[in-house]
Amino acid sequence: MYCVADLYKEHADPLGLTLVAGDGGLKRKILVSEAHRPGLSLCGYLKSHAGKRILVFGKVEIEYLRDIAVDQRIDRLRSILDSPVPAVIVARRLRPPKELVALCREYNIPLFRTSMTTMNLLSKLTIFLNEAFAPRLTTHGTFVEVFGVGVLIKGDSSVGKSESALGLIERGHRLISDDAVIIRKREGSILEGSGAELTRYHMEIRGIGLINVANLYGAVCVCASKRIEVVVEIEVWDDTKFYDRVGIEENYCDILGVKIPFNVLPVKPGRDVVLLIETIALNYRLKQIGYNSAKEFNVKLLEEIARKSKSRRLIREI
Amino acid sequence: MKYKCHVRVKNELGLHTRPATVIVKMLQNCESNVSFTYEKETVDAKSILSILMLAVRKNSRITIKAEGNDAKDIITELAEAFDSEFE
Q: Is the ipTM of this complex over 0.90?
């Protein structure tokens, strides 16, 4: 469960946060990915007050609190702090009123201060919170970067995912994670794959054991995270199945609601899987530039057929 | 067929490389898909790195799910193995 301590630990520097009071409440849970200025609730209008959001106090809020009488100040602050509010941040290096400090101590709510402007703070905080709450899943597979393309290799155990990754690394490509890939959805439509911190850059090769690729091949052969752009499913060649021989139609698979180009790669002895994965990555890159080999070939073919049909008609007319 | 069971890790050092190796060895010839869920993280139990990634400590509870023809047998075997601390 994401708590204030996690936010403080990960983002204190970019947000410029210093803890002023309520350090006993750092374990308070952050239940929603939203932060807001108290607004009308500070004036006493508590209907539909969102009590679970992080509260940000800017210039207007602090000036308003200074302008009202002490009892009213305490009352209004108490009514908004007596809720599951995870934390309070005062922006623009403004001095929090002592009543706010006292109440945060009383309710054990972490109170922070930052020199950032209120709007900047809110934008950055919202980005960080959205990232923390982004949908995610862990999938079995190997994630590599081939010619700058993030390729997620999937398949049954012992089909050769790890060995293919090793072959790719040896050819100068990068490993992000083997066996368990953590996928996070960012900004609504981008999938980012990474490895768990503990097992990152480790591979398990049957007959050899656990190896650390970063130590063996160096930092140039690994990468912390990458956008997932292509999924390749490796399977043992099945004679009864029909494998795509033209490639005009793009196949997709769905991960966390995002469509990702999908290829099935059948393998059998004699097929260089590493070379084939490189070709898939290069073909994807070409398609991104705007050139689809299969479609271009089809257009040329249709033109040739049309040309032949026209010349035959001319010959008949003569 | 889908089967599910909950087990508790009794090993002093948690689920480290030795018990994880025992688990993958047991699942090597198993037809069913087996997964472990620990603290909201679900992983493929046939992969040793995935089990180790969980970093399960002693007295933690794991949910084992198996789906396939030999699901029931493998669940029973795994439950016994966890109980006997993988000796």
A: no
Give residue A132's pLDDT.
87
Q: Nearest to residue A129, comparing CAs of A139, A141, A118, A121?
A: A121
Q: What is the CA radius of gyration of chain B?
A: 11
- Residue B64's identity, in one-letter code, is I
Asked if the model's pLDDT at residue B70 lies above 80, the reply is: yes
Q: Which residue has the higher pLDDT, B87 or A198?
A: A198
Residues of chain A where predicted confidence (pLDDT) is lower than 70: 318
pLDDT at site A308: 87
Sheet containing B41-44: order of strands: B2-8, B61-67, B33-38, B41-44
Q: What is the pTM of this model?
A: 0.78
C-beta atoms of B47 and A198 within 8 A: no
Length of chain A, please? 318
Q: Give the three-class secondary structure for A111.
A: strand
Shortest Cα–Cα distance, A8 to chain B (Å) = 22
Using CB atoms, which residue from A157, A178, A203 is nearest to B46?
A157
- Residues of B designated as active site: 16
pLDDT of residue A218: 92
Best CA proximity match to A89, nearest among A38, A126, A55: A55
Instruction: Give pLDDT, residue A318.
Output: 65
> Measured between CB atoms, does B43 come within 8 Å of chain A?
yes
Indicate which of A142, A162, A179, A184 best probes the interface with B, i.e. most B CBs within 10 Å of its own CB: A179
Best B49, B56, B57, B65 member to test A by mutation, with max A CBs in 10 Å, is B49
Residue A280 CA to residue A164 CA, distance in Å, equals: 14
Contact (CB, 8 A) for A235 and A156: yes
Residues of A belonging to the active site: 140, 161, 179, 245
